[in-house]
Amino acid sequence: MIKLKFIYVFILVSSFLFPEESSWSTTTFEYYWNLGFNQARFREPVNFTPFEVRTGYLTYGGSDYWDDLSSTDLGLISPVILDSTNNSFEYLEPSSSRTLAFIEFDFMRFNFPNLILNKIGWTQNILDIQTGLGYRYIHSIGEPVFPEYWEDTVPNNQNPGTLLFKPRLHDFNINTSIDYQPFSRVRTYFYHSLGYSFGTIYEYSGTGNYLECEGISEGFGLGLRYISIFDKYNFNLAYGIEFRLHRSNINNIKDPSKISHIIGLDMYSKGLIFSISTIFGGQKTSADYSFRKMLNHNYIAAQTGFEDYINSMDAPPRNKLAKKMLEFTQIQIPYQEYNNGLDHQYSGDLDSAIYWFNQSSITANSDLLFEINSHKKDLAIMLIDSVNIYKSDMTFEIAEDIILKAKKLANDYYYVNESLSDLYIEKGDVFRNTGNYNKAYIYYNKSKEIYPNSNVKLIEKYYTLTQNLIKQAEDASSKGEYSLAIESLNFALDINPEKKSELNPIINELYSKLSIEDSAKIKQKIENIVENKKKEIENSLNKKILIGMSSNEVENAIGLPIIKDTINQGNRIYELWTYNNRPNLTRVYFEESLVIKVE
């Protein structure tokens, strides 16, 4: 019901001019580019790859085989170097005769550049340059047969049967991988290896190999790795696919039987290979997650991640960029807080809206602060106006709650304070008219504390209240209730000391009608009451919980209790609030939403 009454407020505010805020991405293209290709720019460097296994198939040819990377045709240049007595190698024409099985093991690749840079207090994570050792084994799957006129006698003049062209090569190498990681799970890389090769070229049926050889090998590769992330461990698995160019230059042939026309190999291979490896590092950091939040304008959540990243190590990669983004984020936070306040306001959650407006004011620049304060003042006026319009349909507690919300928005604005002061005067009038003069006096004094200019209105209120107390004393005296009459007249003097000459004789006369013992008790009781009232008046708006405070004021001062109870005693109903987190306060008792006792 109350929310419906504020609809006009939200309609008016919806036309409010929003303050300007900036975005890290200035265009839609830049936004999606950052979201897609810069999502791991603050990642950890990959420092160590314990092992990587590769396997696949290659086809080979001569030095012209790489001229067309998509073709498997042999070309014009043979990969087999022959002596001058023979230059025919037609049986290598089919690609099936030139297919190689490939398996490779890389060990202990370290990011040596970063290890060196760490010594001088600098790191980078743009490229992971790792170097390690490797072993490679290549053997031919095809088994082309040599021409019949080739001699097939091996050492000891044995005839082993059919001789086959089937190279088997072992390779020990030093390899380097240069990786770039645009995504959290995808890495692109360039691979290079250089090593020493040795093995055999001939195979004879079922009995062994012949024609030992040695030379050098070199490989080049381009590939992609997919990262499988293990949250429970400090390493990840990487699955890769790579296009490999490999050259085996065999220039030293051992032919003790002098039967071979082959004097060397110059094999240019190409093909796809697959890999699996373990890597340490490369994971996204808190700054990467904050960067995504910043792109989506969630600056409040982004701030902590950038701060944690900057403070996480001595020299985090891209530290300057992280600091720049943190500074940008901190500038934008008050704008986000202001917009959060508007969102909560439009949804009807004014408490949350006020919180966000006040948070935004703490760090806002002068232009935004002007917008915030103007908006807060306008909203406070609208809330006060809504109370003035619908007051007849509201309880005192609802009206007070709305005005206190307005006060949180514009604490020093006279219009808000005057409205709250008038509300307390009205509440005081209600208590006065029902004979509860103590509570009436409390509310009149609250009114004066909130808005000192209300003194003009309160002169008549205090005079009427004094007259009511004198009338109450007369009624009590006529019934022989002298202690009540004395208490009422002392209360009247407390309100209006100028009546001292008029009322003191009456009070003394009433005391004479009491016994000496009763008189002493009454005087002490009156003194205590007067002293307590003075303290209540002086501290009525203090954060301490005092007699006469409303339930709204208690809630604003110390929060809600853990338990709320209702106590019925005869015709009177009390409310009990119990706390367990206050060192000097346990229970607060209310009657008609006013504090009557504090424990």
What can you see in these coordinates?
The protein has 599 residues and is α+β, with helices and mostly antiparallel strands. 41% of the residues lie in helices and 28% in strands. It contains 17 helices and 13 strands. The chain has helices spanning 2-5, 7-13, 28-37, 112-119, 286-295, 299-310, 319-346, 350-363, 366-390, 396-409, 414-433, 437-450, 455-478, 482-495, 500-512, 516-538, 551-558, and strands at residues 46-61, 80-82, 99-110, 128-140, 163-180, 186-204, 208-228, 236-254, 262-281, 563-569, 572-578, 587-591, 594-598. An 8-stranded antiparallel beta barrel has the order 1-3-4-5-6-7-8-9. A 4-stranded antiparallel beta sheet has the order 10-11-12-13, with no helix packed on it. A hairpin with a 5-residue loop joins strand 5 (163-180) and strand 6. The longest helix is centred in the middle third of the chain and has 28 residues, at 319-346. The protein is rod-shaped, with a radius of gyration of 46 Å.
Topology:
Blueprint: H1 2-5, H2 7-13, H3 28-37, E1 46-61, E2 80-82, E3 99-110, H4 112-119, E4 128-140, E5 163-180, E6 186-204, E7 208-228, E8 236-254, E9 262-281, H5 286-295, H6 299-310, H7 319-346, H8 350-363, H9 366-390, H10 396-409, H11 414-433, H12 437-450, H13 455-478, H14 482-495, H15 500-512, H16 516-538, H17 551-558, E10 563-569, E11 572-578, E12 587-591, E13 594-598
Antiparallel strand pairs: 1-3, 1-9, 2-9, 3-4, 4-5, 5-6, 6-7, 7-8, 8-9, 10-11, 11-12, 12-13
Helix pairs in contact: 5-6, 6-7, 7-8, 8-9, 9-10, 10-11, 11-12, 12-13, 13-14, 14-15, 14-16
